[in-house]
């Protein structure tokens, strides 16, 4: 399994402006890549993740710094409650490095990858009730079309939805390859990107309620941080980036904050070469007045 390479690591650390003894929240701790750096620079970290596997990996990596961090299994939509319960209010900075980690997509059992045969699941939080297979096998054609258009910008959304509905009538979709093969059959692929990329992205966003969680978390993060504190967000698709951009613009307009990145920071050519997963990353930063 590939080790997860933290995206825009130097850039996010620079903007978090770590102060020795400062308190930070890593809302998406993953395997602890960003958190490790914050600890190395003398900060203390409250780390959240909705996936118990992420927290296990983070714990293994971080235990050399006892007393300097706290890890909690939680959705960042509940950021305010977790911060209160752990007495971690008024942090100096909050980091969101959204989406999924390499060890999650590489594990076929999670059903996130069209390249690996596994159950059509896609839940990052194993306690969530609805899987990708549930959506694919039960949503009406119109709703599937909308989902592929809105969350995946899939140009053949209507066709894919129609064929799914036709095929599931004879046999429900159970594996990642069932779905990836159907999408592949519908396209003459000339692009470098796998034809099922957009359909899989759309389903993952829906299953994990990625946009709803982000909408819920940003105002909470803003309430929590101290004056002069910063929110740093790394997004990986346009739906997420739009939410962050609009929230940051609104806060600046209302005179409550200043955007430190008018245009998003993107990875260098070098980083994209070393880590192709970083190619769609965008980093934005807001400083509370
Ligand atoms: C890109 S990885 C983070 C990698 C980490 N920054 C590093 O450098 O190792 C994203 C992590 O966020 C978690 N995650 C995604 N959405 C979440 C949410 N709504 N609440 C909590 N954790 C979430 C995922 O489970 C995953 O572990």
From TrEMBL:
PANTHER family hit by this protein: 12S RRNA N4-METHYLCYTIDINE METHYLTRANSFERASE, S-ADENOSYL-METHYLTRANSFERASE MRAW
Tagged with keyword Nucleotide-binding: no
Positions annotated to bind S-adenosyl-L-methionine: 32-34, 49, 76, 97, 104
Keywords attached to this entry: Cytoplasm, Methyltransferase, rRNA processing, S-adenosyl-L-methionine, Transferase
GO cellular component, one term: cytoplasm
Cross-referenced HAMAP family: 16SrRNA_methyltr_H
Stored Pfam families: Methyltransf_5
One MF annotation (Gene Ontology) recorded for this entry: rRNA (cytosine-N4-)-methyltransferase activity
Main location class: cytoplasm
Role: Specifically methylates the N4 position of cytidine in position 1402 (C1402) of 16S rRNA.
Reactions accelerated catalytically: cytidine(1402) in 16S rRNA + S-adenosyl-L-methionine = N(4)-methylcytidine(1402) in 16S rRNA + S-adenosyl-L-homocysteine + H(+)
Localization of this protein: Cytoplasm
InterPro entries (UniProt xref): RsmH, SAM-dep_MeTrfase_MraW_recog, SAM-dependent_MTases_sf
Matches recorded under SUPFAM superfamilies: Putative methyltransferase TM0872, insert domain, S-adenosyl-L-methionine-dependent methyltransferases
Official protein name in the record: Ribosomal RNA small subunit methyltransferase H
Species classification: Bacteria, Candidatus Blackburniibacteriota
EC nos: 2.1.1.199
Recorded family membership: Belongs to the methyltransferase superfamily. RsmH family.
Organism: Candidatus Blackburnbacteria bacterium RIFCSPHIGHO2_02_FULL_44_20
Region called Disordered, residue ranges: 267-289
GO terms classed as biological process: rRNA base methylation
Gene assigned in the entry: rsmH
């Amino acid at each position: 399994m590939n080790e997860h390479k933290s995206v825009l690591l130097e850039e996010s650390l620079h903007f978090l402006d770590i102060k020795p003894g400062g308190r930070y929240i890593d809302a998406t701790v993953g395997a602890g890549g960003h958190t490790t750096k914050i600890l190395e620079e003398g900060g203390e970290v409250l780390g959240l993740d909705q996936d118990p596997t992420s927290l296990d990996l983070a714990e293994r990596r971080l235990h050399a710094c006892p007393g300097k961090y706290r890890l909690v299994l939680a959705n960042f939509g509940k950021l305010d409650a977790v911060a209160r319960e752990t007495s971690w209010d008024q942090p100096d900075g909050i980091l969101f490095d959204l989406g999924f980690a390499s060890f999650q997509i590489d594990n076929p059992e999670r059903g996130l990858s069209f390249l690996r045969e596994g159950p059509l699941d896609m839940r990052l939080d194993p306690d969530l009730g609805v899987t990708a297979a549930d959506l694919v096998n039960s949503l009406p054609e119109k709703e599937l079309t909308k989902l592929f258009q809105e969350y995946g910008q899939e140009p053949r959304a209507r066709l894919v939805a129609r064929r799914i509905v036709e095929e599931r009538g004879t046999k429900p979709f159970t594996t990642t390859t069932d779905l990836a093969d159907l999408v592949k059959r519908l396209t003459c692929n000339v692009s470098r990107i796998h034809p099922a990329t957009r359909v899989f992205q759309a389903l993952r966003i829906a299953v994990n309620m990625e946009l709803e969680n982000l909408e819920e978390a940003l105002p909470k993060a803003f309430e929590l941080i101290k004056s002069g504190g910063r929110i740093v967000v790394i997004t990986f698709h346009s739906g997420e980036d739009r939410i962050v951009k609009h929230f940051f613009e609104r806060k600046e307009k209302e005179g409550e904050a200043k955007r430190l990145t008018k245009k998003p920071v993107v990875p260098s050519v070098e980083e994209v070469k070393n880590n192709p997963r970083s190619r769609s990353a965008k980093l934005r930063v807001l400083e509370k007045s």
